Amino acid sequence: MNINKTRKTYKDKKSIFNLTGSPIKIFKEWYLEAEKKVSEPNAFALSTSYKNIPSSRMMLLKSFSSTFIFYTNISSKKGKEIENNKAASILFWWKEMQRQVRIDGKLEQLSSTKVKKYFYSRPYESQIGALSSNQSSKLNSYEQLINEFEKNKSLFKNKKVLFPRNWVGFELRPNSIEFWQGGKSRLHQRIEFKKIKKIWKKKILAP
Ligand SMILES: Cc1cc2nc3c(=O)[nH]c(=O)nc-3n(C[C@H](O)[C@H](O)[C@H](O)COP(=O)(O)O)c2cc1C
């Protein structure tokens, strides 16, 4: 299937080269704007790797300050990859704003106190869902999952849901953050910040 007629022309946006402050401050400004314009602005692609073979999947960011926090199952494919290699990359695409943000860094596991606090703040059925799914393991049928969900629902009716022991949180400590703004004639604007000896150094990159 030839899809080369699918071609989006970006409109010029105001310059991003005069953005001031740390990349975390800029991310926060862009995120606040994205909250108003983008559906699920917290959705990002997480890339990890095992023995030089990369893999990516979409995730939801749950908080950020100087690090970027998400939750998952440590027994999953990504969990096993992260256990072997803490280097990761996360990528946001805010289509409605023609903006991409790429953040590379090292992952650190959150303390179980923090993870439990977040787990029990989730809706009851999401807690049951997490407990019922051994993420990325083989299912004999979809019914197997539904049965597990229903079983746990009745087991923990009006009770505190058992904390799933494989449920974990990670924070990405960034060492590189790149902001990309789409422009006319593919003349996009890019600024890359790299952390060198604890100081963020800024560069403009060719699109
Ligand atoms: C928009 C979106 C958000 C998602 N958010 C999460 C998340 O926060 N945590 C998670 O474990 N999986 C999330 N998933 C599911 C993952 O993409 C993936 O299917 C799952 O984590 C298993 O990945 P793995 O086999 O590579 O470990 C999300 C999927 C989508 C489409």
Verbal overview:
The protein is an alpha+beta fold and 207 residues long. The protein has two domains: 23-113 and 167-205, Pnp Oxidase, Chain A; 121-162, no CATH class. 26% of the residues lie in helices and 35% in strands. The chain contains five helices and nine strands, in the order αββββαββαααβββ. It has helices at residues 23-37, 77-84, 112-119, 124-132, 142-155, and strands spanning 43-50, 53-60, 63-64, 68-73, 87-94, 99-109, 167-181, 189-196, 199-205. Strands 1, 2, 3, 4, 5, 6, 7, 8 and 9 form a nine-stranded antiparallel sheet that branches. The longest helix is centred in the first third of the chain and has 15 residues, at 23-37. The mean pLDDT is 96. Bound molecules: flavin mononucleotide. The site of flavin mononucleotide has 15 residues, from β2, β4 and α2.
Percentage of residues in helical conformation: 25-40%
CATH homologous superfamily caption of the largest domain: Electron Transport, Fmn-binding Protein, Chain A
Structural class: alpha+beta
Q: Could you give a short account of the major beta sheet?
A: 9 strands, antiparallel
Ligands: flavin mononucleotide
Q: How many separate domains?
A: 2
